[in-house]
Amino acid sequence: MRKMLIGLVLILVLFASGSFADNYFNFEYKAQFGAQEIGRASGIAIDASDNIYVGDPANGVVHKFNNDLKHVAKIRANKLNYNGSNDVVVDKAGNIYVMDSYNKANTQRIVKFDKNGSFVNTFGKKGVGEGEFNNMTGIAINYAGSIFVLDNPYIKIFTSNGKFITQWGPKYEISGKCITIDSLGIVYIAGPFYINKYDPLTGELIEAWEQFFLKSPEGIVVDKGGRVYVTDQFDKKVKIFDNKGKLIDYFHGSKMKDGNFNNVFGIAIDSMGCVYVAEDINHRVQKFALAIKAQVIPAPDKPIVEVKSKRSK
């Protein structure tokens, strides 16, 4: 028992000092932006042209920045009592989907805008039935454009027009705080002390990674090489795992200065592999780039895109 305790203390010391990671690669601070426009930074997404979209629940908008990090638009839907909070995703055509879960209408829904920021439609409402939301915590989109909403203990899936397809859970142990989908269509959900992977066709749990060091995840994304990046609110770190669930690196901070974090939330990766981290209290986004080239795992040739419509059990 004493040896186990000593080992645990040593691991904690190494992790805190930065010596725990395998140092496959690391990221260096490049820029920060949005502090003049953003009230609170929550979800973040990047489109095919590397434009950046940031949800701002404090101002009830989604901010759009171009790939030069310049603010170019505020996207909103005032007539809906729209809040624009929490998570946001963008499809291949540039359509924007926002998880609007805290609003004056006291409902939970997804709000869709076109590539120009014009309102298109909403789907979902507060409730516990199929196609309804009661506990939304995240949104993701697959290669085919299907929308996946994490509504614990379910994942609810819709077409790009908002038509309900199916839902998975609760028998598949679905619960978590954030969701993403990789290039194969595999669904990842992160929660306290774990990351789960789900089959893209059936929703069945295919891998469960126990993560002692992952205490309060808020955002998750997978890069082209299959590495998983998670923001952890507890210790203000971005933690990076390989495709087997092994912690391989992280970067962090706790102050307002550039390169450090306070209240990390959404995370996204652009076409060049740069990482963007949204900070709530600091009301900004920070950009990081590789300082040392990572070992690249080739991306799969063909994504799995079909989602079968079936009833959950």
Structural description of this entry:
The chain is built from 1 helix and 24 strands. Strands 1-24-23-22 form a 4-stranded antiparallel beta sheet, with no helix packed on it. It has one helix spanning 2-17; strands spanning 27-33, 44-46, 52-56, 61-65, 71-75, 88-90, 96-100, 109-113, 119-123, 136-141, 147-151, 154-158, 164-168, 178-181, 187-191, 194-198, 205-210, 217-222, 228-232, 237-241, 247-252, 264-269, 275-279, 284-290. It is globular, with a radius of gyration of 19 Å. Strand 7 (96-100) and strand 8 form a beta hairpin. With 313 residues, it is mainly β.
Spatial strand arrangement across the major sheet: 1-24-23-22
Number of strands: 24
User: End-to-end distance, in Å?
Assistant: 43 Å
Uncertain runs are 1-23, 294-301
Q: Quick gist of this model?
A:
By secondary structure, the protein is mainly beta. The chain is 5% helix and 40% strand.
List keywords for this structure.
313 residues, mainly beta, four-stranded antiparallel β-sheet, 40% strand, disordered N terminus
Question: Secondary structure elements and their pairing?
Answer:
Layout: H1 2-17, E1 27-33, E2 44-46, E3 52-56, E4 61-65, E5 71-75, E6 88-90, E7 96-100, E8 109-113, E9 119-123, E10 136-141, E11 147-151, E12 154-158, E13 164-168, E14 178-181, E15 187-191, E16 194-198, E17 205-210, E18 217-222, E19 228-232, E20 237-241, E21 247-252, E22 264-269, E23 275-279, E24 284-290
Antiparallel strand pairs: 1-24, 2-3, 3-4, 4-5, 6-7, 7-8, 8-9, 10-11, 11-12, 12-13, 14-15, 15-16, 16-17, 18-19, 19-20, 20-21, 22-23, 23-24
